[in-house]
Automatic annotation (TrEMBL):
Cofactor section: Mg(2+)
Gene source species: Acidomonas methanolica NBRC 104435
Catalytic activity entry: adenylyl-molybdopterin + molybdate = Mo-molybdopterin + AMP + H(+)
Source domain of life: Bacteria
Listed GO biological process terms: Mo-molybdopterin cofactor biosynthetic process
Domain MoaB/Mog intervals: 196-335
Pathway: Cofactor biosynthesis; molybdopterin biosynthesis
Keyword annotations from UniProtKB, A to Z: Magnesium, Metal-binding, Molybdenum, Molybdenum cofactor biosynthesis, Transferase
Protein name: Molybdopterin molybdenumtransferase
Annotated GO CC locations: cytosol
Stated role: Catalyzes the insertion of molybdate into adenylated molybdopterin with the concomitant release of AMP.
Family assignment from sequence similarity: Belongs to the MoeA family.
Amino acid sequence: MLFPYGTLPFYKPDMMSRPPQESALGVAEAETLIRRTLRPLGTERVALGAAAGRILRETIAAERDQPPYDRVMMDGIALRHGAPARLPILGTQRAGMPALNLTDPSGCIETMTGAMCPAGADTIVPVERITRVDGVATLEPGYTPVPGQFIHRRGSDCRAGEALLSPGTRLSAPALAVLAGNGVAEVAVSRRPRLAILSTGDELVPVDGPVRDWEIRRSNEEAIAASLALHGFGEAERFWAPDDPDATMAVMTRALAERDVVILSGGVSMGDFDYVPQALEQLGVRRIFHRVAQRPGRPLWFGLGPQGQAVFALPGNPVSAMTCFTRYVLPALTAAEGATESRAVPLALAEDAPRLPDLTRFMPARLTHAASGQTLAHLLPVSTSGDFNHLGSTDGIVEIPPGDGAAPAGSAVTFHGW
Ligand code: AMP
Ligand code: MG
């Protein structure tokens, strides 16, 4: 379908009167605008089984003193310090039972790791240091126990009420242990964003169908969905629109409905069939910026929908789409979740990196860990921003600020993992 220039349904007089954003923004400026625009996600309560990897939104305090009682740390015997080397065994203190009482200070009580220390006992001797014959324990000749040894004192790890986890923490494996150990069966975490991924382009066909000479398989949405899944953002609904204004509007309307974030790719460049910015503005998505002074990914468009949806329209070239997604969308989602972590990591260039005088350069990189302890970024030169077939063995992108000449090997750059 061809429209003579100026007759497209999008080119309404009010839109034409709005001056286009002339120059491209800097990377940091673009990031700041995104951060200011994206609304924080709400919270929900989830069972522990569903909490791994989510962002905590409440303070978790110790349920009680930890350990909650003087805990025996060794299988062995409990005695009163100063007792003789031969001690009658007066009972067995197992884990999971109330404390026994060591009434006779010249006797001992057999103990198991994790049991309460028997009342009246103050020292544990490990089983390896004793022999047991006919109900009598004998200490190894010359062995002198240190008073109080192998007793993990009540409250020595933390006191009841002490804050253990703060809001903004990503719930890791040890954090889950803290929750479980402190009786938290359900926890407040950030709600997952409701996401849509929309690809545009007449040439795009699905992965599992026939592909003709002039067609391209859709790959951006797969990469974006994979990154979302790997970073714990859950499922996104997927859409595709051909390069047709009415169809683009119809599909976008569905993609925008009840979403927090919509991620488009393709159709934001300067081509005659790049309808995305106009269609978005027509649907009431206010442009916050269009174009960032970077390579690849200059055409990046970002706006705010009428229901507060954050709309990222990424350039279609796969390297550009992945770069913009990784540099802007992923950190923005992480911030909207209220996470305190930063996804950007400083590390050193393994070799000289070409700089661009006025543009931030993003280059795919593979990381290695040098014997010195330094993590090095090896750059993968990509011939064009469409060349994604060699990205599969890379770990992410490095951000090389504008400058003259090359950034020398060893210089610090910021790395953003895929
Ligand atoms: P565009 O930004 O629409 O001009 O697209 C730039 C290039 O990216 C074109 O060669 C498209 O075929 C390609 N492209 C756009 N969207 C996708 C996609 N979802 N998967 C793979 N390639 C794409
Ligand atoms: Mg296109």
